[in-house]
Amino acid sequence: MTSTKTRRRIVPAAAENGDTADKQDQLLLSSAICNGEDLGSFVRKAFASGKPETLLHHLKHFTKSKESEIEDVCRAHYQDFIVAVDDLRSLLSDVDSLKSSLSNSNNKLQNVAVPLLTSLDAYVEAKNKCSNIALAISSLSTCVQLMELCSRANFHLTKNNFYMALKCLDSIETNFQDKTPSATLKRMLEKQIPAIRAHIERKVSKEFGDWLVEIRIVSRNLGQLAIGQASAARQREEELRIKQRQAEEQSRLSLRDCVYALEEEEDDEIDGVVDGSNGVNGISGFDLTPLYRAYHIHQTLGLEDRFKQYYFENRKLQLTSDFQVSSMTPFLESHQTFFAQIAGFFIVEDRVLRTGGGLISKMEVENLWDTAVSKMCSVLEDQFSRMQTANHLLLIKDYVSLLGVTLRRFGYPIDALLDVLSKHRDKYHELLLSDCRKQFAEALAADKFEQMYMKKEYEYSMNVLSFQIQTSNIMPAFPYVAPFSSTVPDCCRIVRSFIEDSVSFMSYGGQLEFFDVVKKYLDRLLTEVLDGALLKVINSSIGGVTQAMQMAANMAVFERACDFFFRHAAQLSGIPLRIAERGRRQFPLIKARDAAEETLSGLLKQKVDGFLSLIENVNWMADDPPQGGNEYANEVIIFLETLVSTAQQVLPVQVLKRVLQDVLAHISEMIVGALLGESVKRFNINAIMGLDVDVRLLESFAENQAPLLSEAEANQLKSGLAESRQMVNLLLSNHPENFLNPVIRERSYNALDYRKVVSISEKLRDQSDRLFGSFGTRGAKQNPKKKSLDALIKRLKDVN
Asked: Which residue of 504, 518, 553, 698 has the smallest Cβ count within 10 Å?
């Protein structure tokens, strides 16, 4: 065994003072060699200084010094070396014996191990074959599974079951692509899998594009169907309101035996249509499967966000296209298609929002709706500004309100649309008033101002009962002659149509209580349009008493009809009648009524003036008072009695009373006017007594109307003769100076003008005032009545 000694590090000895630099370099080199250090620095230094011979000299010197050391060491250890050599020789003999022993053992081992090694080699070879076979089987199994997945993917592709095909591709990529033992199969998979995915994406995108084309038609049909269902629901509500109004009317008439049951139908049909409970997605063809399939496939492909954006942009473009209004087709004809398309669009979007699994967000739908509302408002503003027919505006408004009702069910705000409708409320009613003005003019122009003749009950119901202008609830006998002309039912139909159109425009417009608005426009219709049309006819077309009488009778019927108009407006507006009746105004056609009665009175006064012209035949200085009244009075009485017998068949009692009172006041005024006129220079007491008889006859005529009127009204009618009666009473009074007493004057002479009293009293002459009568009565005592009258005249002149 050789011992290993640690090599000690040699440090160069310090140079003595007398050593040269060459000696010092030699010592450093020796020290570096002994320590096994790198001599590169010495070599570089020698060549850098240009003295490599010095380095060689130092190396040779070091070699010589070491040889001597080796000799010293060998001499010092020679004996040990000899011993070691002897030991090695003895060890060599031992090694030879050991070698022979090992050779023998090896021969024996070889003899024994050769069969075993042969078996082991066979085993190893068999094991390798088995491993190779197992690996082949595993590879084949992997390939079989891979081919099965590929076959399954192809099958799903042929059946357009793209999702399952993609799942197969994902399984192939995850489980087999990296583990496929076949390089050919692996290259095939790397090439075909992206191609198949691209094919699926193209196929699904094409199906989605076809769906986008189809959904536009489906949306229009869906919108029309949904709006139609809303219209049907509204119609059912109207029918229920009509039944309710009938029930209220029967209750108002106290018909307790009539029982009404308001059956409310289910209003779920539109929900079934739109929500899909009546079939596949609610309407034939309304199928979102292609959309959801495309979305699901793109999700599987990892292209979810791209598809969302693609869907939103395409639907936004479709909506923008739906906003186009054709200039070739009138909007009245195309508005239903226009609004139905938009309604269907947002019904579909609502379904996608609720069932699409995040395909479109609520914010995006709201943005689309805001855009649509803005565009619809712009279109409505433009189209309404061009329309000059109220019915056209109403048709579009009704459809827009149905659109609002339909989309409000899906949570879309429609306030902006309702604001546009409310904004054009005044224009609609102005157009409606203009149409009614024309219709009134046509109806009045066609009227012959003759009483209507009704042969059948349905005519009576259509022209009388439908406007509640009957005076009795008892059905009359037929044929029936109505107290009004055809103007009344014709104008009532126009007004009723106006009310229904106004209520129709105001209904479903977002304003719950609109009766005040309807009432305002109804007031305008009656006070401005109808009243103006009647005034125009009265002032221009009435040429006889019969026509004037018929017009006055019509006005009385219109007064009852106006009550019906306001009740009808309240009922249609859903306002209780008791509330509507609180705000009742005066008769809105009062100007036309007064004009009709004034016209009738004027014509009657003209007739009366013809008879009153006979007052010129009165003997104002008669010796005896006439016993049966003057001729003019009898003629006037005959005319008035004939008038009453005729007018009471046509005119209502109150109208007849007002007309007669006006005529009697005119007669009274004409009698006083005759006394006051220049044609009568003087008259005596007998003439006044004759006028007293005339006035009594007229008062008797007024009193005889008590059965037709009432006693109080007959007295009021007689008050029309107040001026002539008080004038006659004053002239016949024994104390005419009582006229100066304020109390007596207020009680008995309140209708007299003192100036007329002065003028007429001055014409009164006593019997002694005959021509040449003063010669026989000179110095006789003056009549006290004459004296009192002269005093009255003097006092009144002083006051004047």
From this structure: 504
